[in-house]
Automatic annotation (TrEMBL):
Belongs to the 30 kDa lipoprotein family. Residues 1-18 form the signal peptide. GO terms for cellular component: extracellular region. Keywords: Lipoprotein, Secreted, Signal. It comes from the Eukaryota. Pfam families: Lipoprotein_11. This is Low molecular 30 kDa lipoprotein PBMHP-12-like. It comes from Bombyx mandarina.
């Protein structure tokens, strides 16, 4: 008969083996997503969920976001499109379901807590300027829908404002710092109207860098204000990924 000490040792060894296996599977998903092997990652996630190891998927997603791996957004989209919407709903932060489910959302900047909105006046090109609003949270001027499409192996979005039925874009004109101003127009036919989201996990908060496809600039609030004293929204001319306070946004349903 085995001694009590031997039994304890064997139980601990078995527990360590199980934990190591979970770590290996988490690493497997991490590598598959990082290398854009989405079909393999979906198959791995499905197998884990069917084997009651869904927390491994959740931990892998959290690690991807913590390490600022952009592909976590593409992975969520591919999982959603494959029909495994429950995996996104249960194993990804709620913002992913909100975005992919087609809900109208708020974009709230991390630094000032201002909501992305459009001004009520149009310029000579019949376009509206984008601003950050400190107080508004529920009206249509701060409501946006993200319309996803897949192109060149990447996920992009057109970002549609509910009030004016216009699409967010960056203008060709730059300021003294090389930042492109954000406007909205009604003809989203070029890459200036296309955006991609880069999710990150920061202190257990889900945040996003919102990058313009054409200019590769991340949205931020400038220190310049409009007529109603709201901050203008611009694309940042420079590295944004390591300056989260200024360039990150939360995305939540209205």
């Amino acid at each position: 008969m085995l001694s009590t000490e031997c039994l304890i040792f064997l139980l601990c060894a078995a527990s360590a083996s199980i934990s190591q296996t979970d770590w290996d599977l988490e690493d497997k998903i991490y590598v598959e997503v990082s290398s854009a092997s989405y079909e393999k990652a979906i198959a791995t996630a499905q197998e884990l969920v069917s084997n009651n190891k869904s927390t491994v998927v959740r931990d892998a997603v959290k690690l991807l976001m913590h390490n600022k791996v952009r592909n976590s957004m593409e992975f969520a989209y591919k999982v959603w499109q494959s029909g495994n919407t429950e995996i996104v709903k249960k194993q990804f932060p709620v913002a992913f379901e909100t975005i992919l489910g087609g809900d109208y959302v708020n974009f709230i900047d991390y630094e000032y807590g201002k909501a992305l909105k459009l001004g009520y006046k149009t310029d000579r090109n019949a376009e509206r300027t984008a601003y950050g609003d400190k107080y508004e949270r529920i009206s249509n001027i701060v409501a946006w829908r993200l319309l996803p499409f897949w192109e060149d192996g990447r996920l992009f979005f057109k970002i549609l404002n509910k009030e004016y039925n216009e699409y967010l874009k960056l203008d060709t004109i730059i300021n003294h710092a090389g930042d492109h101003r954000a406007f909205a127009g009604s003809s989203p036919s070029d890459a200036a109207y296309h955006w991609y989201l880069h999710p990150v996990d920061f202190l257990d908060r889900t945040l996003f860098f919102v990058y313009n496809r054409q200019y590769r600039q991340a949205l931020k609030l400038s220190r310049q204000t409009g007529l109603d004293r709201d901050y203008n929204v611009v694309g940042h001319n420079g590295d944004a990924i390591n300056d989260l306070d200024i360039h990150a946004w939360s995305v939540s349903s209205l």
